[in-house]
Design brief:
Radius of gyration of chain A: 21 Å
CATH architecture of one domain in chain A: 3-Layer(aba) Sandwich
Largest sheet of chain A: 8 strands, mixed
Distance between the termini of chain B: 48 Å
Strand content of chain A: 15-25%
Number of strands of chain A: 12
Helix content of chain A: 25-40%
Order of helices and strands of chain A: EEEHEEHEHHHEHEHEEHHEEH
Structural class of chain B: alpha/beta
Oligomer: heterodimer
Strand order of the largest sheet of chain B: 6-7-8-3-9-10-12-11
Chain lengths: 320, 334
Amino acid sequence: MSLQTKNLRVYYQTLRGDVKALDGVTFNIKDGEIMGLAGESGCGKTTLANSIIYLTPPMKYIDGSVELDGEELPIWDMDSMNTFRYKKVSIIPQYAMNAMNPTRKIGKMTEELLVSKRVSYKKTRSELERRLDLVELKNDILGMYPIELSGGMKQRMVLVLSTLLNPSLLIADEITSALDVSTQKAVAEMLVEFRNRKIVKSMIVITHDISILYQIADSILVMYAGKLAEKASTDAIVHSPMHPYTRLLISSLPKVGVKYSEKKLTGIKGNTPLLLNPPIGCRFRDRCPVAFDKCMEEPPFVEIEKDHFVACWRERDRNA
Amino acid sequence: MLKSKKTILLLAGGSVIGMLKLDKISKIYSTGTFGGKLLPAVVDVSFDIGDGEVVSLIGESGSGKSTIGKMILRLITISSGKIIFDGIDISTLKKNKLKSYYKEVQGVFQDPFSSYNPIFKAEKIFTTIRQEFYPKMKDKEWEEKVDSSLKAVGLNPDQVLNKFPHQLSGGQLQRFLIARALLLDIKFLVADEIISMLDASTRVDVLNLLVELKSRGLSILFITHDLSLGYYISEKAIILYRGSIVEMGTTEKVYSNSLHPYTKMLMTSVPRMDTKWEEVDVELKAKQIENTIGCVYYDRCRVPDKDTGCASKKPQLIEVEHDHFVACKHCMEE
């Protein structure tokens, strides 16, 4: 097991009380697994990613543990996490395109970054050039300023930067969302290539676009309102989802070849609950078409079939 | 009056003109410190949109799709060419005539959150419409009008009125903006990426709303970068690349029988839920080149027999089958 999180709880502190953005999250990622993390905005995807690497106020650690390659990550302690950041866990943040320092040439910036981690730039230089070739960037790029690059080029440069020290886990947060379809495809395939060459051991790819995950991910974890709804292999999530939320979500996606006149799609009625005072029991209850009495209790996230985890009373009863 | 104009044009030998006609419009920006460099954002684009027709304008970022929308809404000027709406050239409209144009043509944009002033309640966007267009309308009548247009977009007036923008969700705000457009007697809506910021569970609702409005006779220019959304909603699709139309026609024909190399490349890059990506290399976006004489797609094109003609002469749109136009002479030879 590469990554194991157990009962992770991270809340946001606000004046009106705690917002329960991540409420008891337990899952594993195997070695070499690319796990997609999907869900609507505000469901806690980015909170989960940030908790693993950079837990900063107003985020507040409440409970739970994160283990990477058998070693516990001190996620509640900003300073001791520094030994793990970039070397063991690395992230490509959302809006990574604007993450580079505009006043430094890219080569200089890379050097400063490595020096701060006490790694020699000279020794890493040849590897850096190899990685640039891998993402089809020319070496001249190191002498350029970020403003001279296009969006896709910046995204690829950040990919090289984040993985330069061969981290065990890479978190990619919405890295393809702002790109054009053709560039999107190229960047997504590069992520897979990085895994295949064992530059990174495992990956969490966060996106709201499930069709991208279908192309590159081995498994998909679906979140809803700060809780896990379902985790299974990509094929199982797309073709035979079990949780009612996943089912509705998958069926609401427009596909090429579907026209309104032939097949009218429907959305999911209602809104996501506010996480300041989340409803008791299953958080999807109000919008769920198959909810029943038992849903007043919180459903546990259990393995129903091999590698297929679901948090739903209905499915549990059916498979019991 | 308008009808007679149409008939005159018909008699003059033209085909039936649509409600909105773009005739070789171009937009050229000047860039650089002193405005010395010219950047063509849209080049000689012509198409028309009929009554109750939904046309999707599909292209990557920087292809000029939003620029076209903004020119139709007269938010920016046209460098050359004409936009004709119901037989009238809109660039000549002034004051009252422009106002009555806006009564019929409205736009809704990508980011619903920044379309509102956070200090005021969300329905402020309705009151400005009232002040501007219906100053004499009675309160009661106005309230009924607001109620009916909110109901038309599937919102419950009791739940959404008297709220501040942050109290409403993205989908609700976007529908609010469409309701605002419906308060006027609009005939034409420019929908610029209106669902790309919404969540999957709500985006279909907004999409279906557009379908419903279309059945009431509204024409829509649906600007998007998402091919599957374009297919779902429109009868006609226009593929734009670097400011020029590379392929257009009936949606089914453009999608199932793509001929232009750029369209073909787009179709293979779309992430689908039924098939995995084929093993084809996607050429990464080339740097914008200065060459504007030849084919816009020349430097990325992989057609093996592309010749110097492609670089020096811009290909025209050819009708390859009924209602299907392609701007590439090589694709015909296959």
